[in-house]
Design brief:
49 residues; mainly alpha; elongated
Amino acid sequence: MTLTEAINVFLHKSIMEGGLPFDVRQPRYNAETEAAIQSRSKNVTATMH
């Protein structure tokens, strides 16, 4: 599938759905995953300073 074909499929599907053909929302993580993300985020920030 070419990029042009993929875009056309997406646009046609969007028109048929009356909007984006998927939900746009922030993912919800469990507490363990959220803690890991926060910890990694702090480590990255600390190494940048």
